[in-house]
Predict the 3D structure of the following.
Amino acid sequence: MNKHLFQGLVCGGLFAAAITWIAASDVIAEGGFALLASAVFGLAAGLCIGGLIVANFAMLAVEEKGKKEAVAHRAAEAPAAA
């Protein structure tokens, strides 16, 4: 489960950084409050979408854990050969 959470955080963080850079790169020449507003808006949008990516990876980890437990539970209930 930790592997999926780490991958989700890395993927979501990269996505958030890319969105922030794209939003801020348009107004670098203007500077000032326009740059600040674009950077903040890009960061907010990136964190929202990045959070959804992390949540998706976390749901994947929980689903895989449930499947492993179900398989282990079935194997434990198998009748012993006499």
About this structure: The two ends are 38 Å apart (CA to CA). The longest helix spans residues 32-76.
